[in-house]
Amino acid sequence: REEVSKVDVVHTEICSLHSNPSMHKLDQLVSQSLFADGFIKYSLVQDTDAPHFKLLALKEEIIPDSLNAMSWNVADWGFQMFLAKEVPVLIRRYLPSYLKRLAKRLEDKPLFAVHPGGPKILTHIQELLELSDSQMAYSFQVLKEYGNMSSATLPHIWEKILADTNIPSGTQVVSLAFGPGLSISGSLMEKICGS
To answer: What Å distances lie between residue 61 and 21, 42, 121, 148, CA to CA?
Structure first.
């Protein structure tokens, strides 16, 4: 049996398919305005000389008592999203204890790659964790440039971190994403600049 040396991962998100032009409720208009179409491809490899991440920790949990805060439901017109106003508050309340379980030891100033469900989530996390603008820069930049591309968003943030030659090898990156459930998925990675 031949050993696999590379796995290609492709994210194709066509969120505009789910926009219902006849839906004019405020919560639906806000949800639709946050999402954008996105695409990205990357490869998982065993050995590379290119800049890459080393995975140090991985954790996924469901935030207690949050089942109805975010949902994707099948409707006559694609998927219909419900996003409660309390989502940033629920994340803010749960995040400190989650981060302790994700990473026992964080370096002094890790970078944060946070899936920008919206600007409020990024702002809440930055304020809660007392992060500098530079620690959150790529999350805000990708949100501003592309919007929330669902699963394609974090890989775009990772790509920018890897491409920045000013970020040295050994820099820790905390990556966070949120989804229906209300679920929180996170990883602790280390940037390796390669040779």
So the answer is: 34, 25, 17, 21
d(CA 195, CA 192): 9
CA–CA dist 152, 55 (Å, integer): 19
In order of start, what are the domains of the chain with their CATH numbers?
A: 6-192 (3.40.47.10)
| Closest by CA position to 69, among listed 184, 195, 179, 182 | 182
* DSSP codes joined into one string, 12-71: EE-GGGG--TT---HHHHHHHHHB--EEEEEEEESS-SS-EEEEEEEEEEE-TT-TTTEE
φ, ψ of residue 54 to 5 degrees: the values are: -105, 125
Contact indicator for 164, 22 with CB cutoff of 8 Å: no
pTM of the model: 0.85
Residue range 122-170, pLDDT digits in tens: 999 999 999 999 999 999 999 999 888 788 899 999 999 999 999 999 9
Token match 């017109």: residue?
77
77-113: buried (b, 16+ CB within 10 Å) or exposed (e) per residue? Answer: eeebbebeeebbebbbebbeebbeebbeeeeeebbbb
